[in-house]
Predict the structure.
Amino acid sequence: MIYTLRHRTTYRYGKPVRFARCALRLKPQDGEGQSVLASAVTVDPSPATAVMRRDYFGIDAVAITLDLPHTTFSVEALSTVRVERPAPPPLETGTAWERVRDAVVAGRELHGRAPVHFLYPSGRVPLLPEVTDYARPSFSAGRSAYGAAHDLMLRIGQDFRFDAKATHVYTPLAESFALRAGVCQDFAHVMIAALRGMGLPAAYVSGYLRTVPPPGRPRLRGADASHAWVAVWCGEGWLGLDPTNGVAVRDDHIVVARGRDYGDVAPVDGIVSGSGKQRLKVEVDVIPDTETQDLALVG
Amino acid sequence: MEGALAARAEMGESPRARVARWTAGYRPAPGRPDEFLGPDGAPRGAWPRLLDRLGALTEPEITARFVAAERHIRDAGISFRIAGDQREHPWPLGCLPLVIEGAEWQALSAGIVQRAELMEAILADAYGPGRMVAEGLLPAAIIAGTPEFLHPLHGVVPPGGHYLKLYAADLCRGPDGRWQVLADRTQAPSGLGWALENRMVLARTFPDFFQDLHVERLPAFFQAFRDGLALGAERADPRICLLTSGPYSSTYVEQAALARYLGLMLVEGDDLVMRDGRLHVRTVSGLKRADALWRRIDADFLDPLELNAASRLGVPGILDALRNGSVVMANMPGAGLVESAALAPYLDGLSRRLLGEPLRLGHPRTWWCGDLEGLAHAQANLDSLILRPAATPQRGAGRDAILAGPVLAAERARVLAALRDRPFDYVAQEAAPLSTMPGWERGEAGLSLVPRPFVVRVFATRTPLGWQVMPGGFCRVSEREDLDPIEMRLGIRSADVWVLSEKPVAAPVIGSHAAPRVRRVGGHLPSRAADGLFWLGRYLERAEAVIRLVLAHLRSVGDAVGADISGALDTPAALALRTLLHEWGATGAAGMPTARLAQEALAGSERPGSARAHIDAARRNAAALRARLSGEAWRVLADLNEFLALDPDRALTESQLAGRAERALSHLAALSGLTHENMSRAEGWHFVELGRRIERAINTCTFALALANDEATPGCLGVMLSLCDSQISYGRRYLQGAALDPVRDMVLLDPYNPRSIAFQAEAIARHLADLPALAADGIPEPHCRLAARILAELRSGEAADFDAVRLTALETDLERLADGIAARYFPTGPHALRPEKLTGLA
């Protein structure tokens, strides 16, 4: 499947910002079942400096600075991506989760893609005994790592309520876990904490999800959203699991970045001087190539 | 007891007998190595030399010396905070130094140097090629599991070429009697400043001992450390900053002392800013480059953009300056990685591989539970091991938190469960009690020596010729046998460390190699310091104004004693004074009895406008300026603070209160005299003076509005003169009593009266002219134009013109001038625009 992606972020500030320093992580991941056919990011006002850097985890980030007073800051990313992933493996035939864990701990790899970096607590994902205890029933002795993780994902999908009002972007994991509610970010963080608590490497994946408009209705512009899910290390490679929707990741998910938690992959991140009140607007379009013609009609 | 001591001294107890009496009951615990007595029970090392020298002093002499030392510590404001505690505690200097013989020290130093080299090599490998992991000498999970493995620093070559410029190790003796390392400190080791303070205090307490006992001196080490900080900087005359964790951190006093001693600019994160890829300090002369940084904050807090996003202590984007090599940092962020306890089992192998020699200086036996054999050992020996977090503990947890001591039966299930889920998060360590050294104990029969557990921190710094170890250290000694002196807290004392050379030690030569360049000012003033100095001046002046109001009120009532007191309370002047004090928040209600009102306005701790509250604010402000204030100024301020806070619950009489107010005024006069006579006429002085002058001008306006308005009675005018300390001049100049125009002229317009507003305005204009201008176009900046207009109005005005309308306008202009100065010079101050995080899910 080929997708055209548009992700527009606009900040409006209560007071003029004199200096800003931001990191933009908006370019979709190239590789592991994806190829980026085109990608461009435009920033308004135009930045004083812009440097592209690939970080330790392989995420492409553009570091920009803005040095003229401004009250609006907008970033638009446009990309075209081909997604062709193999079908997920059978659930219960892979390497046992205990063996996956022991192999990671004994591993001799320290580069940024090595699973060992995703084994430990990170800024947004503390390891909590109650979360590990929640995970435990899925991890019977000798079960395949993928089967156990998939089961955990289904349980989270059942036990947790999607509720955009229940949490906000800085809600601590302990709170969203206690509420059993939240948005994709919370679902992903809880599942990561649960997997790591059991000793399995787990990563936070940011990206987009293809949505299907109601039958007979055109796609509305900007109505999609950015999405987040989980990648779990199953011994041979990373496999994507989407606890918010209770599905294994295949061609409907488009990966932008994979990091330890939201903090590593935040699409637009930065520090501004004296913004006063901030208002944020995000518009996302995920358009499968089969629909590009329709969009022209709507636009 | 005192009698018994004196009797013994008179009997002429011999030095030898005295030492014998002190040590008669000294019994180290079995199996616990001791510094003074060897396993055979015989005195050893340098201790007999120290004790013989001490024995030459009588006990009253020794006591007197320590009392003097404690007074010095209190007076000099040497203090520390216990983490999580707001109060400052006086520095608890223990009575005996730890003494180590030169030969033993040489061997220990060689071990320290080797360990520092090893840590450097491990860091260079972990942040570089990762060979040790690939070769199987070091598990990847140990490095990845340390929060101090900072991914953004991977592949960044440290400017200047080295990760470590300062290395510290906590030592005690192991069960075999050999020195061993309890912890390596590479993140931002504290304690150098305490070591220095301890040495300075003991040098005052026992000046003669240093020569007699051949104690190695410290200045050469500090000089080498300072030189090393700048090593690798891009510019020849680098600006070196000490990035402090702030006035509320437990070691702030130490950091300020070091900045002062080493001549470093003391800065907080807000003082620094990245521009054009380089690090700069905000100063009153604009942004100035910072070339080298000694950070005393943990690396995680250093850059909210790339590291801990919640940090308010760091500098957004500062890692870029490391990437492009434009700032040298001690130590390199990420150096904390090698503090991990889980490294211990692998150090000997790493030393053989990286340095080609076995490890000289050991550590308690340690097993990493991520290793199957280590886990099996830990599970089988839970009763004799302690279990600790493998990585440097996460934020919030105590750095040396011990998860479980020799495990209690009830705890066993919890510990085993933790080991089952994530064994690699733990290490097991041999549990051994700390070794001991002598400490004083005062008992019924006088002083005696008893064994006390201790830990000594030693330091090494990198020089162009290799590592140099400080011949001394920072020792923590417990006051009780069962309390481990791991961190400074109550019940723990610190002690100096003396390395006793065989031969006499040469007097230290400071500034060894290059002659220093002559300078007259200490460099550009950071904006934050300017802000602090400005407010110091304002708070002191405000406190003085409150005290003068109180005193004027007490006197106006006191003069009426014998006549009708209730009448005196109702005079327009007394009413005006009470109203002013109330409006300033110095008293809770204007209608209180005079004595209560005066006491509250002077010393009320819950009144935001009391003199005490202002002095307290001045002192807090000054705490952040410790590196810039003289010890004397600090002492006067501390005295005044203490004096005003004296027995708050005792009701004082009016005359007692007047006495106190007068004494407080003398303290303030002493402080202003110190500023005037001792403070260099550099930028800092201008800001203290600006604060004082502006505050005085505004206060005088306020007083004149209340007491020298068109309806003012002669009584009011008299009080106005006394508030401005101008009665005597007035009396000399005018034969008749206080009249409106002459009084107004004297307190508002007379440029010769140092209390008049005109005098303040002249001074303000002069100070502003002496401060740096930002623009080179020659046009005065807005705040300078305002100051010039205020001055012109006062110069050209006549007393009769200054009615309430005119005075109110003048007061507003002065307030605006204060705001204008703040906006121009203090962009980092408390009211400044703070950097904010972009919010929301983008």
